[in-house]
Amino acid sequence: MKRFLLVVLTAGLIAALAAGGAMGNVIKLKYGHVERIEDPQHMFAERFAERVRELTEGRVVIEI
Question: Is this prediction's pTM over 0.90?
Fold first, then answer.
């Protein structure tokens, strides 16, 4: 399940970058889940959002 989720998020990120990367706009994506803040899935989501922001130099922002 985690691998599937990662593949889907990565594909969405690539599509978003391809569609809006040339315009220089900030791309905002939403990551939704139903787990508590202490849950590992939420911790993964926060770390994933942080890494995406770092690697894209702020061009892609993931809201949790």
Answer: no
